[in-house]
């Protein structure tokens, strides 16, 4: 925590916006909340390899144009 206090002081001295300085500061309650969030993430089911949504696309131009259209719409 002492190192964080030094970082906050250095940011203030450097003239950073107070909103940014406030986000930089770590308090015990913030650290507890971050740790709880990490624990919740660790307990979640692994999403890799799961299909979340399937969409059937019909194109009069053929499958290559359909795939291109899907990729283009995702951007």
Structure description:
The protein has 75 residues and is an all-alpha fold. The chain has one domain (2-74). It has helices at 2-13, 18-24, 28-43, 63-74. Helix 1 runs antiparallel to helix 2. The radius of gyration is 23 Å and the shape is elongated. It starts with a helix and ends with a helix. 0% of the residues are buried.
The ordered H/E elements are HHHH
How many structural domains does the protein architecture include? 1
Radius of gyration: 23 Å
Spatial gap, N to C terminus = 42 Å
Number of helices: 4
Structure classification: mainly alpha
Sum up the overall morphology in one term. Answer: elongated
Strand % is under 5%
Low-confidence stretches: none
Measured as a percent range, the helix fraction is 55-70%
Oligomer class:
single chain
**Using DSSP, what is the number of strands?**
0
Largest sheet: none
Overall mean pLDDT score? 81
List the helices and strands and how they pair.
Layout: H1 2-13, H2 18-24, H3 28-43, H4 63-74
Helix pairs in contact: 1-2
What are its keywords?
75 residues; mainly alpha; elongated
Describe the structure in brief.
This protein has about 80 residues and is mostly helical. The protein has four helices and no strands.
């Amino acid at each position: 925590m002492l190192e964080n206090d030094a970082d906050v002081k250095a940011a203030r001295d450097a003239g950073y916006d107070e909103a940014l300085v406030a986000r930089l500061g770590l308090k015990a309650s913030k650290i507890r909340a971050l740790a709880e969030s990490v624990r919740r993430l660790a307990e979640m089911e692994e999403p890799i390899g799961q299909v979340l949504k399937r969409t059937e696309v019909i194109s009069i131009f053929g499958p290559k144009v359909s795939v291109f259209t899907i990729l283009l719409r995702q951007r």
